[in-house]
């Protein structure tokens, strides 16, 4: 006769069999840290403004040394107007007008390109230095975080918004305006809207918001000085503020891009890329921005200014 197979000890002792061992736990998944963009556009804008200013001074209409013109023999001829005519150490009004300064009457006569060209001109060396220091302080960080394409579009469109606002508030057509301040205030406005729409990723929300508002208020207060085109500041700030809701959206806290998730890895409680209120801000701001530009440009083309003697404003 054959032998009976042995009885497992757990059955003899009345204990159930041991459960199988669980599979080894997967290592915790951590999405990669985003790499900042390489900032090259802001330094390029910085250099372009200095080259434009040097060209402006080279072409400046300075009569002679006997007229108290400050002459600097660099590349042949760089001439600055007398201090009593231009305290910012810069060119004359006719030179700025000839090279593309903003003047409402000329814009209405068909020279629409002045709405953009004026943001590359400056009323003097002091004006240029103040704007370029602000550009480096504000623009470098924004370009590293959001890339050259969005910051470049933000800079130019904000400058255009400042130019349109400057023309609309100059009902007599007596202002000759130059400067990149409208575009720079657009960057400040975009920083504010970026902070509002991406508030969930900031730790010290109230402190960050109040600090930025204080900085903006201090910069806007400079516009109340004589011969400063504060309307261009306000127009650029508003354009940048609404454009920031469109261009500077960040993913909400906890979002993971699907391309960084390993195959077969199940992420629990996966979040959407943006919150609902971010989409509301984006489309509402885009509608306001388009309506404002269309209305402002249309009003600028329909109205006509009164003849008067021009004077220079810097922005």
Provide a quick synopsis of the model.
With 315 residues, the protein is mostly helical.
List keywords for this structure.
protease; Peptidase_S54_rhomboid_dom; two-stranded parallel ribbon
Task: Describe this entry's structure for a reader.
This protein starts with 8 loop residues before the first helix and ends with a strand. The radius of gyration is 30 Å and the shape is elongated. 51% of the residues lie in helices and 4% in strands. The strands form 2 sheets. Strands 1-2 form a two-stranded antiparallel sheet. A hairpin with a 5-residue loop joins β1 (70-72) and β2 (78-80). The protein is mainly α and 315 residues long. α2 (41-58) runs antiparallel to α6 (125-146), α6 (125-146) runs parallel beside α8 (181-197) and α8 (181-197) packs parallel to α10. The longest helix is centred in the C-terminal third of the chain and has 27 residues, at 276-302. The chain has helices at residues 9-12, 41-58, 93-99, 104-108, 114-117, 125-146, 148-169, 181-197, 205-221, 230-247, 276-302, and strands at residues 70-72, 78-80, 175-178, 311-314. Residues 64-68, 71-76 and 305-310 have low confidence and may be disordered. It is an enzyme of class 3 (hydrolase). The chain crosses the membrane at residues 37-59, 148-168, 180-201, 207-225, 232-249, 280-298. It is found in: Membrane.
